[in-house]
Amino acid sequence: MTNEWLDLVDDIDFPPTPLQGGFVLRTGRKGLIALLHAWREAGVNHAALGIQFSERPVKEIIQELAEEILPHFPSFEGHERLRARW
Fold it and tell me: Model-level pTM?
């Protein structure tokens, strides 16, 4: 698991740019997708994206994440549930 404080901008081609000493990442959609792919290749299977430092309205960011970014990263089906042996 890892996390990123994110300022997701309207320009989908905006390059990943660290802000506040690297504390916040300003990027467009393509940069975020590339970052998430790199994390997945490194073995990350859970990511938390903090958007409280974003300049865009939260509703817009959530909609873009849901419609344009999440489809690139389908959920894992998980493991079969174990039965309790009581």
Answer: 0.82
* Whole-angstrom distance, CA of residue 73 vs CA of residue 36: 8
**What are the DSSP E strand ranges found in 1-86?**
2-8, 17-19, 24-27, 47-50
pLDDT tens digits, 13-36: 999 999 887 788 999 999 999 999
Could you tell me which of 36, 68, 67 has the C-alpha nearest to residue 49? 36
What radius of gyration do the chain's Cα atoms show? 15
pLDDT of residue 81: 74
Query: Cβ(35)–Cβ(27) under 8 Å?
Result: yes
C-beta separation of 47 from 32 below 8 A: no
Rounded mean pLDDT, 49-72: 94
